[in-house]
Amino acid sequence: MQHKRFGVGVASLAVSALFIGACSNAATDSQSSTSSTSAAASASPSAASSDATHNDADVTFAQGMIPHHQQAIEMSDMLLGKQGIDPEVISLANEIKNAQGPEIETMQGWLQEWGAPSSPAPAPTSTAMPGHNMPGHQMPSGDMGDMPGMGGGGHGMMSEADMAALQNAQGAEASRLFLTQMIAHHKGAIMMAQEEIEIGQFPAAVEMARAIVSSQQAEIDTMQGMLDR
User: Low complexity: which segments have biased composition (predicted)?
Assistant: First the structure.
């Protein structure tokens, strides 16, 4: 009788061991499956974000805004090196430098990340453009160069003559010329930023463009107020 009970006990233990083992394997398989699913889910956002990184408009924005910002800093440095400048204008020039310097570094980082050159490819000359001699397609006359930002590279960029005029100006004249030129310069930057907002894809670039529109329009209003006094 004792042998029989012992045999039943052993059998029961064996069945229990098999049941526990099966449950353990099932739990392990379930955990493994859950881990795999979690890993796949966590990888998906990264893949999606890398697929929707940037487009040509983002590259154009960075390539154009970098030299645009660099010229604004150059203009500010010119003014800051002079004597007899309105303290409010000096403060504004420093604000422009402090804002646009870091933005230049950020945009240079984007271009490097995208594998894009720092400058756009040279545009074709007018002689290579079809229809350049067609009626109604004449280029504006040279008189446009007399207006700040109209004789440079477009989008409010100053020409060499504009920069020389600022370099040679002194005192109150330099303050007013700086304000006049920078208003035109800022308007060009806003145009470029608005293009990025409309057709850009890279979220950080679009965000920067929105910030440029907001901050530089506020500075335009401030500068115009200084000129109107």
Answer: 28-52
CB-count exposure of residue 2 (10 Å: 0-12, 13-18, 19+):
exposed
pLDDT digits (tens, 9 = 90+) for 134-148: 344 343 434 444 555
CATH topology of domain 53-117+146-228: Ferritin (1.20.1260)
Which residues make Cβ contacts (< 8 Å) with residue 189, sequence separation at least 6? 65, 68, 69, 72, 155, 156, 212, 216
Mean pLDDT, range 166-177, rounded to an integer: 98
Kindly list the domain boundaries of the chain, sorted by start residue: 53-117+146-228
Q: Measuring CA to CA, which residue among 182, 185, 223, 191 is closest to residue 209?
A: 191
Q: Which token pair is 164? A: 């020389």
Q: Closest Cα partner for 157 from 57, 60, 80, 75?
A: 75
Whether 40 shows a pLDDT value over 90: the answer reads no
